[in-house]
Amino acid sequence: MSRAPNRRTTATATAALALAVAALLWALPGSDGPAPVTGCTGRRIASWSVDSRQTAAFARYGNDNARTDDWTGGDGTHSVRLPDGRTLWLFSDTFLDRIQPPPNPQGQQRRWRTADHGGTPYLRHNSLVVTSRSGRPERTLTGGTPAAPGPYFPDPPGGGWRWPVQARVETRTPGAAERVVRVLLWRRAPGTGPWIFGMPHATEVATLSLPGLHLERIDETVGPDAAADPGRRVLYGAATVREGRWTYVYGADDPPSAPASRAYLARVPAGRLADRGRWRFWDGTHWQRRPDRAAPVLRDGGRRGVGSAFTVIRDGRGADRSWVLFTMDTGGGGTAGMRTITSYWACAPQGPWHGPHGRITPPRPPAPDPGHVAAYNPQAHPGSSTDGTLLLSYDINWLGPPGVPADPRVNGDVDLYRPRFLRVRLARTTP
């Protein structure tokens, strides 16, 4: 999760000069940085609105009791457009089972998730939901058996689990005609104390067939040996952006006592996400083979940091294309890191990043204790708009006070564990 006119004119001119110098440095012989960027201008959040249609589509699907082995709620909420026009949605912890209607439809009581088998509803560490070309959710993909559904991406041997993050459609091998889906996975290990959501372990890449979406294999790309301290391990896949012949892969560490995470950057030749030997990591100056030498591109302190889950897109046309990062406002003070989304922009994938620019405080469902209802994990879904806006999802959870179990609320109340959607419009800005 995440966190005067004359002076302004001077600051703008200084920033423009700094960007020009940076572009010149990237062009020097021997540099392995990105190509120089010209004409890039900043981006800020200009306006936003609720996307009720997309939010309602998942609510209807989750409330449908035609099947009791399908999705009734989850978080994570990443997506990838498939070649045939369908969209594959990837969820982390997922609830299955039946939804009970409110006992008093005219009152304030909401739908409740229950288990036909008694006890707690099925919770699995991940699932996939396939939507039609029109955007209607049609089916849930899980593992296991119909009688005992399990996670689509199986729990690893020896304990732990896998959370899917970004996915991309690639050729099976460079130059091949056949395409597959590559899914980045965060592998986590059981933990206690500050690691109640598990300790970061490794980054993996799963390969799924097309069009059948069968899991073929899982490959480790960044292992736990990159950092002995779990709090310094970087899990990659918070965001991916294809640019030219590269796929840029953003990741974050997960320090247990810090209010924010630090963002990191790797790149992989297009079509090689599952090839561990082709990954390179930005060390602040060069692309490194060794992940332990990666340096943050956006950190806490002077640059405020990011939530552990954030998203990055490219916005604009031609030379005026900027990199835009959305994250929870981890440096905003108070509860902003669990209530407010903000953005940063850059002219190159590794930065320098400028911001924060703009604020979104998305609506949360009503609750008797609204201070404990959290919004988190903003995720962009490119290619989903024809009106110049961006579809942005966020997740909802209930984080009760210390010592109060969350299960009765999160497990039951369907409004507290389903994605919600916004339409966001960006505008130009200056540093």
Structural description of this entry:
The N terminus is likely disordered. With 431 residues, this protein is mostly beta strands. It is built from three helices and 28 strands. The chain has one domain: Tachylectin-2, Chain A. It is globular. The strands form eight sheets. It has a five-stranded antiparallel beta sheet, with no helix packed on it.
What would CATH call the homologous superfamily? Answer: Glycosyl hydrolase domain, family 43
Find the count of extended strands (DSSP E, 2+ residues). 28
Residues in helix, %: under 10%
What is the strand arrangement across the widest sheet?
17-18-19-20-21
The amount of beta strand, in percent, is 35-45%
What's the structural domain tally?
Answer: 1
Q: What value does the average pLDDT take?
A: 84
What Rg is obtained from the alpha carbons, in whole angstroms?
21 Å
Overall shape: globular
The appropriate CATH architecture is 5 Propeller
What kind of sheet is the major sheet? Answer: 5 strands, antiparallel
